[in-house]
Amino acid sequence: MEKLVIEGGKPLSGTIKIHGAKNAALPILAASMMAPGTVTLVNVPDLSDIHVMLDILRALGCQAEQGTDTVRLNTSTAHSSHIPESLMSQMRSSIFLMGPLLARFGRVQVYQPGGCAIGERKIDLHLKGLQALGAEIEESGNTIVCTTNGLKGTEIVLDYPSVGATENIMMAACMAEGMTTISNAAREPEIQDLQNFLNVMGAEIIGAGTDTITIKGVTSLTPCVYRVIPDRIVAGTFMVAAAVTKGNVTLENVNPSHLTSVIHVLKRAGVQITIDGDIMNVSCLTRPRAVERIVTSPHPSFPTDLQSQIMVLLSLADGVSIVKETVFEGRFKHVDELSRMGADIRTDMNSAFIKGVHRLYGATVEATDLRAGAALVLAGLAAHGTTVVEQIHHIDRGYERIEKMLTHLGAQIHRFSPVPTE
Ligand code: EPZ
Question: Is 116 a catalytic residue?
Fold first, then answer.
């Protein structure tokens, strides 16, 4: 399996461009199914999760080409609403296709996506929302078949502001008859991007980014050209990379309004951040300060997807910090690996108590999930000595050739690909 080998201790410096948002592109690719014809998406990142989504769209009969940062889809040839189990098991986000396929074909067959390293990842809120819109849902084993003779708008109150459930319901409601309101909706920027994309195609949605989204059903949608927002989690990851290496990094193609809570926490830790439009400079020339308490929760609070990364900074800070993870029940898998690098972290249920140390030491560590893997790379960049990060396929799901971007900033990192044995 491929590994990343990192010689730590080099302050990062220079400028990088942040690629498009994986968590905006995935639901937007799914929503493209609702408008037969040619959809062109710009600023789409070249990631393994995107590749899987394109393979699923091809399996449904679409034509899909991926260029440097552009994807061109022809969804008019789509003929199936059965998502292959083999592809579904590769990426749970394929669940985003339920709403669009139900809206277009009146039927969709999927499989329980199952849990992952960070948690159970239930989909009950997705299914309850689609049922409220008039879908019949049959589950047998891990197979789920949804059918409808026509979706009808309704009032939906989410028990929890689930990002995926909000997106799935929004997409299905686009072509339901009448009005739908989603209360207690998730407010993430990726949901606003999905609303904007759907509205460019002719949908009538307002309220994304607030906790109440209103959708007026339309009878058809028209394909379009659309640019996906920058990836706020990748941007946040590189902000932390600059801080933990005591470097000075400029990020281009960033939307600072998507990172308000992250900027606030980093400034509390003593990181210098200056913003000029979509350009952000991040530096930290002194030892970071501990941050008394960080609680992850739905946007606009501190994002769970940056919890493992910020923990690396706190591991090197002067003092004791507490991180409470309230979104996923299993999102502390990076703690053991960081401890093996010299971090002083104790966990109790969903809280981590981090006592900052002066230095981390290189070790061979294993990525367990996407963001934990990214955190281990950050720890390797800061550590004294050599760090080997294994199972890096997790990282490739969300970061375009992370070693290339870091090398560009002066890091000593390379991807080790073992020669395939006969
Ligand atoms: C999206 O996942 C993101 N993925 C995740 O990013 C992100 O961590 C998460 O939102 C929270 O911000 C994509 O957008 C592709 P949720 P999603 O539904 O939609 C529970 C990354 O690293 N829940 O908001 O799956 C669930 O178990 C990934 O890029 C239910 O109980 O997140 C979890 O505890 C990781 N029932 C919580 O809600 C449901 O029907 C948040 O899940 C749905 C969710």
Answer: yes
- Rounded CA-CA distance 342/318 in Å is 15
Give the ligand 1 atom nearest the CA of 123: 40
Q: Per-residue pLDDT tens for 330-365? A: 899 999 999 999 999 999 999 999 999 999 999 999
**What pLDDT digit, counting tens, does each position of 28-87 carry?**
999 999 999 999 999 999 999 999 999 999 999 999 999 989 999 999 999 999 999 999
Pocket probe for ligand 1: among 22, 23, 110, 396, the residue whose CB has the most ligand atoms within 8 Å is 23
Residue to probe by mutation, ligand 1, list 97, 162, 234, 394, most atoms within 8 Å of CB? 162
* All domains of the chain in start order, with CATH: 3-18+230-416 (3.65.10.10), 22-227 (3.65.10.10)
Question: Could you tell me the distance, in angstroms and rounded to a whole number, from the CA of residue 302 to the centre of ligand 1?
Answer: 14
**Beta carbons within 10 angstroms of residue 367's beta carbon:** 26
What one-character-per-residue DSSP string does 360-410 give?
-B--EEE--SHHHHHHHHHHHHHSBSEEEEE-THHHHTTSTTHHHHHHHTT
CA of 240 to the centre of ligand 1 (A): 22
Helix (H) or strand (E) holding 242: helix 232-244
- Find the residues whose C-beta lies inside 6 A of ligand 1: 23, 26, 93, 119-126, 160, 162-165, 186, 304-305, 327-328, 370-371, 398
Please provide residue 354's backbone torsions phi and psi, each rounded to the nearest 5 degrees.
-115, 115
Name the pTM for this structure.
0.97
Nearest CA to ligand 1 atom 30: 122
Helix (H, G, I), strand (E, B) or coil at 421: coil
Distance (Å) from CA 102 to ligand 1 centroid: 21
Tokens of 284: 């930290």
Expressed in angstroms and rounded, the spacing between residue 20 Cα and the centre of ligand 1 is 19
Q: What is the C-alpha to C-alpha distance for residues 51 and 65, in angstroms, rounded to an integer?
A: 10
